[in-house]
Amino acid sequence: MNKGATPQNLGATLKKLGHYIGKYKFMLSAAIILAIINALGMIYGNYMFKPILNSLIAGEGINVLANYLIRLAIVYIFTAMAMYGSDRSFVYISQKATQEIRSDVFEHIQKLPVSFFDQRQHGDLMSAMTNDIDNISMALGESLSTVINSALTFVGVIIMLFVLSPVLAALVLILLLLLLLSVQIIGKLSAKAFRKRQASLAQLNGFVEEYMSGQKVIKTFNHEKQAIDDFNKVNVDLQKHSVEGDTYSTMMFPLTGNLTTILFSIIAIVGSILTIQGKFGLDVGTLASFLQYTRNIARPVTNVAIQFNVVIAAIAGAERVFEIMDVEPEINQGKIKIVKDNNGSEFWYIPKDMFSCQEITERSGELRSFERPSADLMARYPGCHIPVRGDLRFVNVSFSYDKSSHKILNDVSFYAKPGQRLAFVGSTGAGKTTIINLINRFYEIDSGHIYFDGIDINEIDKEDLRKQLGIVLQDVRLFEDTIRENIRYGRLDATDDEVIAAAKAANAHQFIMNLDKGYDTVLATDGQNLSQGQRQLLSIARAAIEDPPILILDEATSSVDTRTESLISKGMDQIMKDRTVFAIAHRLSTVRGSNAILVLEHGEVIERGTHDQLMAEKGRYYEFNTGEVELK
Prior knowledge:
The protein has 632 residues and is of the alpha/beta class. Helices cover 60% and strands 11% of the residues. The chain folds into three domains: 10-325, ABC transporter transmembrane region fold, CATH 1.20.1560; 337-389, no CATH class; 395-626, P-loop containing nucleotide triphosphate hydrolases (Rossmann fold, 3-Layer(aba) Sandwich). Helix 2 (25-47) runs antiparallel to helix 4 (62-110) and helix 3 (49-58) packs antiparallel against helix 4. It starts with 9 loop residues before the first helix and ends in a 6-residue tail after the last helix.
C-alpha cells in the first residue's frame, strides 16, 4: 500500500465515502435541515443586538426590551434543540457508515487470494481495520457535522454583513482572505505530516504484530536487545511525525484566533470612526451587531481548520482502506458444484451446457463403474453427475509464484486413485507444499491441468472444492474458544456427538476428557495452554469432522517428539481409512506405508514408487534414507 503517499485520487475517495453516507439520505437531509435551523438561530441572535441596543438608546422602555428578550430566548431554545438533533443524526450516520465500511472490508478480505497476504504485513492490515477506519469514523461523525454547520454559518454571516454594511463587509472579506491564506499554508504542512504519521503508525503496528508472534524465536537467539533497538527506531519515527503533525495542528487555533482578533480590532476601529461620523448609515446597534458577526465569522473558519487535520487523516486512511477493497478477489468461475441425493451420496453436478460425462470419464476410467445418482437427483439437477471419490491427477503442471521468477513446479504429472496414499519427499524448496497449495487453489497454475474425479478444478466452485479437502498443517491454528467449537470449525453444522466421534477418531478424546472442563475448555490464544501434540490432535479431529474424500497432511508430525508422533499417527490412521491421502513428511518413517512415494527435486518428480521399490533403485530416496544426502 502507498504508505504516506499524497492522496492519489481525492475525488474517487470522497465518492466512495459518499456512497456509504448516501445510504442514509433521509436522515442526512434531516440533519442538514436541523443544521440550517441552528445556523439561522445563531444569525438571528446576533442580529438582535441591533434592535436591542437601538431601543435602549432611544429609551423605548422595558416592555419593548422584554419582548425582544423573550423572542431571543425562544429562538435559542429551538436552536439548541436543532443543534442536538443535527449532531445526534450525524453521529448515527457516521457510526452506521463506519460499521458498513468495516464489515465490507472484512468481508472483502475473506475473498482475497492467499497471494495478497503474502505481500502484506499483517500489522498493516490491522492498522487499516482499526486506526484508519477509526479516523474515518471520527471524520464522518465530528468533522462532517462541524464542516456543514460551519459552512452554513459562514454563508449566513457573510450575507448579514453585506445587509448591515456593504463597505465594512468588503473590508472584512479582504482581511478574511489573508486569514484563509495562512490557514491554507499551515493546512498543507499539517496534511503532509499527518500522512507520514499514519504511515509510521501502520509500520509500528506491523512491527509489534510480527515481533509479538515471534517471541520464542527472539528469546531463543537472544535477540531481545536488537528487537528493542529496532522497535525504538520505528517508535522514534512515529514520535517525530506525530510531533510534527500535532505542532501544526496546535498552531492552527492560536493562529486563527490571533488573526481573528486583529480582524475584529481593525473593523471595530474603522466602524467606530464611520459611526461617529454618521457615514454609510451606521448606528451603534448596527455596529454592535456587525462586530458580533465579525467575531463569529472566523469561528467557522477556525472550526474547519481544526477539523482539517482529522479530515486529511481520514482521507489518507480511507485511501488505504479502499485500496484493499479495490484488490481483485479470488477468481472463482467454477460452475460445477456438489449435490446430494436422498441417500446422502455426493455427486459433482455438471450442467448440460458445459460438457458431457463421457469427456470427464475418459480422464479417469474407473469412474464409469461407480453408482449412478437417483432418479430424483437427476430430475432436480438435469445434466451430468459424477460421484465424489477422491481421484486426483496432475497433468503437466507448471507454476511460479512470481511469473517473472524461476518455476517452482516444472511439467509435473502424477495421479492418486481413490483410497491411495501418496507421500511427497524432497529437499526444502522442491515444491512439496506448493503442490498442496495448488490442490486447494490458493494459487492458479501457469499451465497444465489438475483433475479432481476427472474434472478440471478450475471448473469447480472453490467453496465446494475445498469442502472435499481435509487439511492437517504443521502450524496448527486454534482460536480463543472452546475445544468443542475448535473441532466444529471443520464443519459448523456438526452435532456434539459428531464432534466427540471426530475427537475419538483422531485419538484426542482421552486427553480432552482429562481437562477440567473437557470439551468446554476454553483455549488460550492459538491453543497455547495445550502441548504441541495436543494441538495437532485437535487439528486432526477438525479435519476428520469434515469427512472429506481427500486428506492432506503437511508435515503434521515434524515438530513433535517420537512418542507424540506415534499418538498422532494412530489418530491419523483412523481418519485416513478409505480416503485419498497426500502426505508431506520430513521423517521418512512416516511415509513407508504409502501406496506411492514421489521424490521431488527442483520442481520435478524424479522418482515414484513404493518404499521397497525406491530403496531397490538406490536413487535419491535411497540416499535420503541412508543419510548420504540430508533431507531438509
